[in-house]
Amino acid sequence: MRESALSLTKRLAQTAQETFVSIRLPINTEATFQEFDHADPEAQLASVTTRIMQALQNNLDGKSKQYKDSALTQLFLMNNIHYIVRSVRRSEAKDLLGDDWVQIHRRIVQQHANQYKRVSWAKILQCLTVQGSSTSGGSGPVGGEGSGSGVSRASVKDRFKTFNSQFEELHQRQSQWTVPDSELRESLRLAVAEVVLPAYRSFLRRFGPMIENGKNPQKYIRYTPEDLERMLGEFFEGKTWNEQKR
Q1: With contact defined as beta carbons under 8 Å apart, do 96 and 46 qualify?
Q2: Which residues pair with 141 in a beta bridge?
Q3: Tens digit of each residue's pLDDT (9 = 90 or more) over 7-42
Q4: How many helices (DSSP H) and strands (DSSP E) are in the chain?
Q5: Which end of the chain lies in a sparser environment, N or C, as judged by fewer CB atoms within 10 Å?
């Protein structure tokens, strides 16, 4: 059992080295097994495996602090904890750590995905939310069905312009980011689309006529909901800026 346990911990450590490159695990597996409890080797192995998993997560937490973009920090943690969970589920470590460990860490992956969504998209969604009356300016409030009483055309133009610039910035930057796991990538895109697209459709339906009846509406209403959906499908592909322009 000692040899089997040592082999498993070495494979876990090797997986860590291959995945996180610069990680140095603060665990000496040879020294750990010098005091191996032959009376209960499975419990000892479970303890060592748990320590290795904790060491991995500690290293991830430390490395994530190198990113200045908090959204990228969340994506980094989501990607790598997802990889750890997937590796555990495919190895003997699953039997040692148990289903509870797997479920807890799957929830942690989801928490980082939710945090990414909040950090990246909360600001842009504010552009599509109108609370109270706008300030004076432009051509003044425009009535009519769905137009939103008390909201000026100038204010609506500003909202569209701000949304366009922020969305284009996110698209340019985050299309270069990578979510290697295809299922996780599609799940994250869908989660974003389910928040952004209904908000944009609602704003467009309510305030679009105010812009469409004026001059140069295409300057402000630059995207259809279908355009946004297509562009969201390009997020997390790891594309370079030159590839995006083709």
Answers
A1: yes
A2: 152
A3: 655 665 565 555 444 333 333 444 444 444 555 667
A4: 9, 0
A5: C
Using CA atoms, how far apart are residues 226 and 214, in angstroms rounded to an integer?
A: 23
- The burial of 146, by beta-carbon neighbours within 10 Å (0-12 exposed, 13-18 middle, 19 or more buried), is given as exposed
* CA distances from residue 115 to 67, 73, 159 in whole angstroms, order as listed: 15, 10, 25
What are the residues whose beta carbons fall under 8 Å from the beta carbon of 96, sequence distance 6 or more? 42, 45, 46, 49, 50
Are 228 and 197 within 8 A, CB to CB?
yes
Here the tokens at position 11 are 């494979």
Q: Count Cα atoms within 13 angstroms, Cβ side, for 101.
A: 20
CA atoms within 13 A on the CB side of 125: 14
Taking the C-alpha atoms of residue 35 and residue 43, their distance in angstroms, rounded to an integer, is: 13
